[in-house]
Amino acid sequence: MTTTTPAERTRIVLVGIRNAGKSSLMNRLLGREASIVSETPGTTTDPVTRSMEIPPLGPVAITDTAGLDDEGALGEERIRHSDQRVSAADLLLFITPRHLPPSSIEQQLLEKLKKKNAPLIFVRTFADRRINSDKQAWCGSYTAVDINNQSGAGTERLLKAIKRARKEIVIERSPLEGLVEAGDLLVLVTPIDSAAPKGRLILPQVETIRDALDRDCATMVLKEKELHSFYSRLGEKPKLVITDSQAFHAVAANIPRDQPLTSFSILFARKKGEIHLFMHGIRQMESIPDGGRVLVMESCSHHRQSDDIGTVKIPLLFRQRVNPRVEFDFARSLPPEEELSSYSMVIHCAGCMTTRKAMLARLSTIERRGIPVSNYGLFIGWANGLLPRAIEPLPEATELKRVLEDNRTLTAL
User: Fold this and answer.
1) 185-266 is classed in which CATH architecture?
2) What fold, for 276-389+396-411?
3) SS3 assignment for the chain
4) Residue 412 pLDDT more than 70?
5) Do domains 6-168 and 185-266 have the same CATH topology?
6) Residue ranges of domains in the chain
7) What is the pLDDT of residues 392-407, one digit of tens each?
8) Are 366 and 287 in contact (CB under 8 A)?
9) Which among 237, 281, 238 is positioned nearest to 377, based on CA atoms?
């Protein structure tokens, strides 16, 4: 469980007003003190996330958030950070004191949570006190569990409710879903450069290899400089060649034109995000004006190298192939919507370190502002003249190619 990546854990987020008992519940679920408990309002400032195992859900990440009725400028910033965690939640636990009527802020919060497309369980704290009739009616048809803050009575009932909720939790597709069958041969090209972690493969490569093994496929893993020699010695044509996006050009030059080819990043565009939206972003690139601003976004905090793909290679390719007179900014979290509106385009990483739910929430905000967005793999594939070839192996290929049909410049490369 401790080696499970954050992106593959089910995210359970505790929400509610200050002093509702969120931190006490967090500690009860974990069986240890992870959040400070105090009668002072606003004790929890930044979201606190800890990992545990809840069979049959498996590895989960539980987050205690600041009270969503926090006050002042700092309180507003805490609420914004809490909102980001709520948007990424797979399951929401709404913590509310059972002996008090629903406050106006709680009512507003529930209306917001209804739009989050995540199952919700009411956790009514202070179970040693008489339940307020308005609170009981307000919880309505939702699952509700009463918890005693002092004794912990009700915790087991809550865990059972969490386990039952797994049927409603959105499960990500795997990287190779719909692409391969048992017995297929796959060639995976994994460049080892200065950005590669020492002694390890990067997460998209690891997940794809594991998925291939789970599907009873055979895999050949090699570097781009070895591809030509080993490919020519294969006794059968591979079902699919998958490459790191940065090696697209070199790989395409060393395999036949009719060999199906894609990239790890493109596989993750459909696993983590919305590949149709990303494709529309590719089509809209040429409308970016001189002086336009492009935001390059990542979901992890890796140390950036001198040849970093996000801060160096993508801006260089963009200026060479789209418009040399644009400005680039780089971020690892979504800026406030007012600031986001100043950008002409967003280019996002594969998202291997985040969940599909979190990525879709991020994309929804970008789309709501009318900003074109694409992903690293699709952009690099296009810049190397490999669209639509790099999307042809996908089940969605016909629809995706249709998006590009009206733009001769993009499809004729």
Assistant:
1) 3-Layer(aba) Sandwich (3.40)
2) Rossmann fold (3.40.50)
3) CCCCCHHHCEEEEEECCCCCCHHHHHHHHHCCCCCCCCCCCCCCCCCEEEEEEECCCEEEEEEECCCCCCCHHHHHHHHHHHHHHHHCCCEEEEEEECCCCCCHHHHHHHHHHCCCCCCEEEEEECCCCCCCHHHHHHHCCCEEEECCCCCCCCHHHHHHHHHHHHHHCCCCCCCCCCCCCCCCEEEEECCCCCCCCCCCCCHHHHHHHHHHHHCCCEEEEECHHHHHHHHCCCCCCCCEEEECHHHHHHHHHCCCCCCCEEEHHHHHHHHHCCHHHHHHHHHHHHHCCCCCEEEEECCCCCCCCCCCHHHHHHHHHHHHHCCCCCEEEEECCCCCHHHHCCCCEEEECCCCCCCHHHHHHHHHHHHHCCCCEEEHHHHHHHHCCCCCHHHCCCCCHHHHHHHHCCCHHHHCC
4) no
5) yes
6) 6-168, 185-266, 276-389+396-411
7) 999 999 999 988 876 5
8) no
9) 281
- Convert the pLDDT of each residue in 47-94 to its tens digit: 889 998 988 888 899 999 888 876 666 667 777 778 888 888 999 999
How confident is the model over 217-226, as pLDDT tens digits?
999 999 999 9
Q: How far apart are the first and last CA of the chain?
A: 46
Q: Tokens 């496929």, residue?
A: 217
- What is the dihedral sign for C-alpha 112, 366, 300, 219? positive
- Here the tokens at position 368 are 């709501």
Burial class (CB in 10 A: 0-12, 13-18, 19+), 150: exposed
Given a cut of 60, is residue 190 above it in pLDDT?
A: yes
CATH fold of the domain at 6-168: Rossmann fold (3.40.50)
Read off the tokens for 85.
């965690």
